[in-house]
Design goal:
- With 107 residues, the protein is mostly helical.
- Helix content is 45%, strand content 9%.
- It has four helices and four strands.
- The strands form two sheets. The chain has a two-stranded antiparallel ribbon. A two-stranded antiparallel ribbon has the order 3-4.
- The protein is rod-shaped, with a radius of gyration of 36 Å.
- The mean pLDDT is 77.
């Protein structure tokens, strides 16, 4: 037993019983660490399988680029500047790969 000095009461003694009760209380009140998978099922990330969505304005833009490339002259503007032919070809190829434009017709 070890005396504990308390200013309000007489000296309290630490006993084995108090230590045991304190240890049991700390085990009962302690937070439990568990794996998240044991709390709820975890599913894998689902990625879109089909072609990505292009809105109406994007489809019009790609169609305009494709039409201008077929006509041989670029007049499509993006942010106030005429789109360079190389960039237009790259964007049209990307739109075709996504399925937003029909496949290129053979000549």
């Amino acid at each position: 037993m070890a005396p504990i000095h308390n200013h309000h009461h007489h000296a309290d003694l630490i006993t084995r019983r108090r230590i045991f009760i304190g240890a049991v209380a700390s085990l009962i009140c302690s937070p439990t660490v568990v794996r998240a998978t044991s709390l709820m099922p975890v599913h894998g990330l689902i990625l879109p399988i089909g072609p990505r969505y292009a809105g109406f304005c994007e489809r019009l833009f790609y169609h305009s680029l494709d039409s201008n490339l077929r006509a041989g002259g670029m007049s499509t503007t993006l942010n106030g500047k005429i789109v360079p032919t190389a960039d237009a070809r790259r964007m049209v190829a990307y739109a075709r790969a996504q399925g937003w434009l029909p496949p290129e017709a053979p000549c």
